User: Which sequence fits this backbone?
């Protein structure tokens, strides 16, 4: 009798389990799923299916319930799907907020589920990927929902530099919720369907009487081009998740492992004769640094980070000899490649990420100096420029720089020079290394001769050329040992790969301290 009762109870529980699982998979119901699709958005589960290898997702806490308020109503899954899966066979931990359940609002149980996968990720040593689509804190839970955010923020900070953290903003992300993605390493946004802001359009209107839309205030384009909060803008959910998979393939799983090697069958000795003619004869003429970048990298594959922000500097990932490298390059086609506040901050954060995860750094230098003017000075270019200087000096990964053309003044030092502990410093024959550009230097050094000349313009041109031949060339620096070698442009790829090979075992012991105080 008892055995039959147990069998019956077991069958009842199995049936109940199936019912609960169906409810969890259905989320907020067919009507809300259709509404989600109507906005051009995928559901939380559809996103995970696209992000992860087929059949690899294992869910945590599917049956965990939250409360809508007062402890009366129960919310299956509490509006978030959590677990782990693989991307190209490598383990990752994920959470995906479900907007069809209470607008994906974050409550206590919701937070506990996210915190669990973050804790697992750090213990296991695997990346964390968050798919954000939430209306914000769950008002019905009051201060408990605010405390829940604090639990997530703490884990973001403690996981920083331990495992890669990636955020995808695939819907609303407002109020305190924005600070979790802001602390992660890379942020993706979907154009026209996602936005981030601390205070929304209604609050802005109330306080400032300014009419502004959510897209204008915190859309993907705004954060990609102006604020720098966003690293990637994609036109839809599908392409966004595909780019996340691509990024993961460049990154190590944690700070104790190397990035994955990928042989693209691109010969290390490959030369590109066209590079011998890349730099124009006229030093004031621009060219596109991306031509050099794609020429030297394996398979011409380059994943640029923050492509629309501070475009006068380029940062991103590529491969040399199958090995992931972080690349920082001045872009002479935009503002002549000058360093300003935004460019300095963009590059500094990228350098620190690469150093934290043992990714070698390559710098391609063509920098005429720091941006002049009261706007930059009053905006803190000294402080912001110091961030890049500090980041490079602190970095212990293999570091190689190549001076392509201009390297003037303090900007020469800041852009990964030998003087701030770079391991190898190459220069092309077209390099100009000096305190000032030749014309500016000639105007100062020979000002009396120029003023007394019958034709001051002709005298200035003559003295400018004399200064260029005498000082503004790579051979003067090479004679002093500040440049390790002057190389022909066509052999750049091979020389960089050989440099990385002998630097593979680099070890650097830093000073004993808790941590430095970067000029934030």
Assistant:
């Amino acid at each position: 009798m008892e055995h039959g009762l147990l069998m019956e109870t077991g069958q009842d529980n199995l049936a109940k389990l199936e019912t609960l699982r169906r409810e969890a998979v259905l989320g907020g119901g067919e009507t809300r799923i259709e509404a989600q699709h109507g906005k051009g958005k995928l559901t939380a589960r559809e996103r995970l299916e696209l992000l992860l290898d087929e059949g690899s997702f294992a869910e945590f806490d599917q049956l965990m319930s939250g409360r809508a308020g007062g402890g009366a109503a129960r919310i299956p899954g509490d509006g978030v799907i959590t677990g782990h899966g693989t991307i190209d066979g490598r383990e990752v931990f994920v959470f995906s907020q479900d907007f069809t359940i209470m607008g994906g609002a974050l409550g206590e149980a919701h937070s506990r589920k996210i915190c669990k996968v973050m804790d697992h990720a750090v213990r296991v040593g695997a990346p964390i990927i968050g798919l954000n689509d939430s209306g914000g804190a769950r008002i019905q839970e009051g201060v408990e929902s605010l405390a829940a955010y604090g639990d997530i923020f703490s884990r973001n900070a403690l996981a920083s530099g331990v495992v890669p953290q990636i955020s995808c903003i695939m819907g609303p992300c407002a109020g305190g919720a924005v600070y979790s993605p802001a602390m992660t390493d890379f942020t993706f946004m979907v154009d026209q369907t996602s936005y981030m802001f601390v205070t929304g359009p209604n609050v802005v209107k109330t306080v400032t009487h300014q009419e502004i839309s959510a897209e204008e205030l915190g859309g993907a384009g705004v954060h990609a081009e102006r604020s720098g909060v966003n690293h990637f803008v994609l036109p839809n959910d599908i392409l966004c998740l595909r780019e996340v998979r691509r990024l993961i393939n460049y990154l190590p799983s944690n700070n104790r492992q190397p990035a994955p090697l990928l042989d693209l069958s691109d010969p290390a000795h490959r030369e590109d004769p066209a590079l011998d003619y890349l730099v124009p004869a006229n030093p004031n003429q621009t060219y596109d640094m991306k031509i050099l970048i794609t020429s030297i990298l394996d398979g011409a594959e380059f994943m640029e980070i923050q492509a629309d922000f501070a475009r006068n500097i380029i940062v991103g990932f590529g491969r040399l000899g199958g090995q992931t490298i972080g690349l920082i390059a001045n872009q002479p086609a935009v503002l002549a490649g000058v360093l300003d506040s935004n460019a300095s901050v963009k590059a500094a954060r990228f350098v620190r990420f690469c150093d934290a995860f043992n990714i070698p750094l390559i710098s391609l230098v063509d920098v005429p100096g720091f941006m002049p003017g009261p706007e930059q000075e009053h905006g803190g270019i000294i402080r912001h420029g110091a961030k890049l200087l500090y980041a490079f000096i602190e970095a212990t990964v293999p570091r190689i720089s190549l001076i392509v053309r201009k390297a003037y003044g303090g900007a020469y030092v800041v852009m990964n020079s030998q003087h701030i502990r770079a391991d190898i410093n190459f220069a092309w024959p077209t390099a100009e290394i000096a305190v000032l550009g030749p014309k500016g230097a000639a105007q100062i050094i020979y000002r009396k001769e120029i003023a007394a000349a019958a034709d001051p313009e002709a005298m200035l041109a003559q003295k400018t050329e004399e200064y260029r031949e005498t000082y503004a060339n790579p051979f003067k620096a090479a004679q002093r040992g500040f440049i390790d070698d002057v190389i022909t442009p066509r052999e750049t790829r091979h020389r960089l790969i050989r440099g990385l090979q002998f630097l593979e075992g680099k070890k650097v012991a830093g000073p004993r301290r808790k941590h430095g105080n970067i000029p934030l």
The chain is about 40% helix and 20% strand. The chain has a mean pLDDT of 92. The longest helix spans residues 2-26. The CA atoms of residues 85 and 334 lie 41 Å apart.
